[in-house]
């Protein structure tokens, strides 16, 4: 039997034990079987149909973690983080997708919105949304991550908040749209155009410079998200989507693409989104998001009710391509075990990892470490910090540590 199959069999045997244990605990008396006889909802006619579905009202506590750094002064500026600690699989429900806005979500009328492609092109083109919807489209599953994600993991003391409130400035959706290269070719882009400027229709006119290679690689003009038209918060009616690159470059509410011979150095790429180095210089244009993983369950603020078998699970991703391996440690990094992966065939997508774990009731420190197909390995927190100046705020992809106390309480620690 291969190592993988042996692991799988052990997992199945343990899972059966887990289910067996749970069953005997639940059906504690023979009378329990009779209690199944009736719940009130089994005796009344159910609710009528609805036009647009909603989650169960019992799931109402599962909401995004809203961060408003400027308070009521700018209530739509900041970020709303995905509650990854409550989610499963690899697709983020659109209602719980992270949202990072510089000046709120604009209320765009798709009939009035236009996308202009101009600059170093033979034929400047102006598109209505309806005209974009008539192009042949492609569909791909990709994560998007704000480069500011996990910057709460850079504070001097570890924040005792749920995993999503630290690491949820990322999400993964099925995106459908037009390859950007199709529109650039139609406009007759000049061979000497080396960069693009992409600009949004929000009041910040958020804009970024993009090297032309990305446009001809996998850049999308996205119109649909998880099967339906984009959500307003994620760029309705049209956004740029640059798979694997820092979220900021995927300009939402896209109104303009200008072909240029150099980077434009917009306010959004000079005042922000630079990474300070120890020697006083700063890195500009760090596009690709690093290889990363986080255990979503068990995680910070949760409690393990009793010793026994648990599944450790979480998310991994890499801006460079596919995740090749995720290892899990329950002893603070002294030893590692490869976890089972789901979705690892997809490049630049969330991957779900799982590993069964017998918690004996002793204190433990849980960590996960991802490796991608380029051989890049998620760094330790101390190694990440050593690469930058102390005021680094972006691109934190370092290993996350959750401590399990003897009382079963899970806390955020720096290990
Ligand atoms: N026009 C515009 N585009 C934007 C932004 C913005 O504020 N305005 N925020 C950017 C940032 S910083 C990120 S991380 C991503 C987030 O995309 P999401 O809100 O769909 O998760 O959008 C980017 N595109
Ligand atoms: Mo961002």
Describe this structure in words.
This protein is α+β, with helices and mostly antiparallel strands and 415 residues long. Helix content is 15%, strand content 31%. The protein is built from eight helices and 24 strands. The longest helix is centred in the N-terminal third of the chain and has 24 residues, at 3-26. Residues 1-27 have low confidence and may be disordered. Bound molecules: ligand MTE and molybdenum atom.
Notable features of this structure?
single chain; 415 residues; alpha+beta; Sulfite Oxidase, Chain A, domain 2; Immunoglobulin-like; five-stranded mixed beta sheet; five-stranded antiparallel beta sheet; 8 helices; globular; disordered N terminus; binds ligand MTE; binds molybdenum atom
Total number of beta strands = 24
Terminal CA distance reads 36 Å
Report the radius of gyration as a whole number of Å: 24 Å
Q: Give every kind of bound small molecule, once each.
A: ligand MTE, molybdenum atom
| Biggest sheet: strand arrangement | 5-4-13-8-9
Shape descriptor reads: globular
């Amino acid at each position: 039997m291969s190592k993988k199959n042996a692991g799988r069999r052990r997992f199945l045997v343990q899972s059966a034990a887990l289910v067996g244990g749970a069953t005997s605990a639940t059906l504690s008396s023979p009378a329990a079987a009779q209690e199944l006889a009736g719940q009130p909802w089994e005796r009344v006619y159910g609710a009528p149909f609805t036009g647009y579905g909603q989650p169960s009202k019992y799931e109402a506590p599962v909401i995004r973690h809203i961060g408003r750094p400027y308070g009521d002064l700018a209530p739509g500026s900041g970020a709303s983080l995905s509650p990854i600690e409550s989610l499963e699989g690899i697709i983020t429900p659109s209602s719980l997708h992270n949202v990072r806005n510089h000046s709120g979500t604009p209320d765009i009328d798709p009939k009035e919105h236009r996308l202009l492609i101009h600059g170093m092109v033979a034929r400047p083109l102006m598109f209505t949304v309806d005209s974009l919807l008539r192009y042949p489209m492609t569909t791909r599953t990709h994560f998007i991550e704000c480069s500011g994600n996990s910057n709460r993991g850079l504070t001097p003391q570890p924040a005792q908040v749920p995993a999503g409130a630290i690491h949820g400035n990322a999400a993964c959706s099925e995106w459908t749209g037009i390859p950007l290269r199709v529109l650039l070719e139609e406009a007759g882009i000049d061979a000497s155009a080396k960069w693009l400027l992409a600009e949004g229709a929000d009041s910040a006119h958020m804009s970024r410079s993009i090297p032309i290679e990305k446009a001809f690689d996998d850049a999308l003009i996205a119109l649909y998200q998880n099967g339906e038209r984009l959500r307003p918060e994620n760029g309705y009616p049209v956004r740029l989507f640059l798979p694997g690159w820092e979220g900021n470059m995927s300009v939402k509410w896209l109104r303009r693409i200008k072909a240029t011979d150099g980077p434009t150095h917009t306010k959004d790429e000079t005042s922000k989104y630079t990474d300070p180095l120890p020697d006083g210089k700063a890195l500009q244009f760090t596009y690709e998001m690093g290889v990363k993983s986080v255990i979503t369950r068990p995680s910070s603020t949760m409690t393990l009710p009793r010793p026994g078998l648990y599944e450790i699970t979480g998310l991994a991703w890499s801006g460079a391509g596919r995740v090749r391996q995720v290892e899990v440690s329950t002893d603070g990094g002294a030893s590692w075990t490869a976890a089972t992966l789901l979705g690892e065939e997809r490049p630049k997508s969330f991957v779900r990892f799982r590993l069964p774990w017998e918690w004996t009731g002793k204190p433990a420190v849980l960590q996960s470490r991802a490796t991608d197909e380029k051989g890049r390995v998620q760094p330790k927190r101390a190694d990440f910090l050593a690469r930058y100046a102390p005021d680094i705020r972006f691109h934190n992809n370092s290993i996350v540590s959750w401590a399990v106390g003897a009382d079963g309480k899970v806390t955020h620690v720096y290990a």
